Amino acid sequence: MIKAIQTGFFSVAAHPDRVFRRCKNWTQEMTDISTELISTAAQNGVTLEQNMASYEKLLEKSNFIYWRKEFWDLVESYNQNARIPVKTIMGLDAHSTEDIIKRANYVSLTEAK
Q1: DSSP string of the chain?
Q2: What is the pTM of this model?
């Protein structure tokens, strides 16, 4: 994903935290990779998408860890200290009207943290 961002071909990186979905415990290596990805996105003007389908799985199916709070905490921390912050967008990843309504409601939960 980092190399793809560096090409300049993309304006958004969809659910960048999902790469860690099979990792049970957050590690320093994951922090290092995430920090590089976040800074690369910021430097290249690429927006990172927070995927509400991943967030839904976190809330509704405890064995799914597609939404990595650790990653999004790093984004927030990066933006507090960065000269060039990374942009983020909420993506609903909706395939039906029901998905749109349900996932739009989750957006307010992520903002309430």
Answers
A1: -HHHHHHT--SEE--GGGGGTT-SS--HHHHHHHHHHHHHHHHTTPEEEEEHHHHHHHHH-TT---S-HHHHHHHHHHHHH-SSPPPEEEE---SSHHHHHHHHHHHHHHHT-
A2: 0.84
Looking at residue 15, its amino acid is H
Contact in structure between 8 and 62 (CB atoms under 8 Å): no
pLDDT of residue 63: 67
Distance CA 43, CA 29 (A): 21
Structure tokens at 5: 């961002």
Q: Which two tokens stand for residue 9?
A: 């071909």
Question: 25: which 2 tokens?
Answer: 């415990």
> 99 with 92: CB under 8 angstroms?
yes
CA gap 18, 60 in Å, rounded = 17
